[in-house]
Amino acid sequence: MNLSNKRKLVFTLMILSLFIVSGLSGCSKEAKKAKHWKRGEKYYSENKFREAIIEYKNVLQLDPKDATCRYKLGLSHLRTGQFREAFSEFSKSVELNQDLVEAPPIGKFLSSVERQQESQGTGGAGSRKRSE
User: Fold this and answer.
1) Domain map of the chain by residue range?
2) pTM of this prediction?
3) Backbone angles phi, psi at 29, to 5 degrees
């Protein structure tokens, strides 16, 4: 093998390695998301809501527009008594997927927050949406 052929072989192997590495990194994002989602669901079903929150947040770092994950994160916050965080996640989930507004407990939760804000004279979150 002469020097020219060795260079071509090395160059070809380097390019091939780059393609393999870039291909694996593309798959790994979805694999990581699925792994964190599965863990979050496991923790949620075991009533380990703080652990579930961590896993759902990991999913959202990979895919911030995952409405279902935001919904489950909101439920987890609700179960731990973190009402502001729950409201924030429920609101974001509904922005991403309007169908979730009917999902329990979002409708009930948003209605109670709206009633509380109206009684305080600040206007509810839902009143802004209706006027737009």
Assistant:
1) 29-131
2) 0.65
3) -65, -50
Helical H runs in the chain? 3-45, 49-62, 67-79, 83-96, 106-119, 125-131
Model pLDDT for residues 49-75, shown as the tens digit of each residue: 999 999 999 999 999 999 999 999 999
Closest by CA position to 68, among listed 94, 50, 47, 43: 94
Give the pair of three-digit tokens for residue 60. 């959202």
* Residue 65, amino acid: K
Topology at the third CATH level for domain 29-131: 1.25.40
What contacts 115, CB < 8 A, 6 or more positions away? 124
Secondary structure of residue 124 in the 3-state scheme: coil
Structure tokens at 124: 């509810």
d(CA 13, CA 46): 48
Cα(129)–Cα(113) distance, rounded to whole angstroms?
14
Dihedral sign from CA coordinates of 73, 104, 84, 96: positive
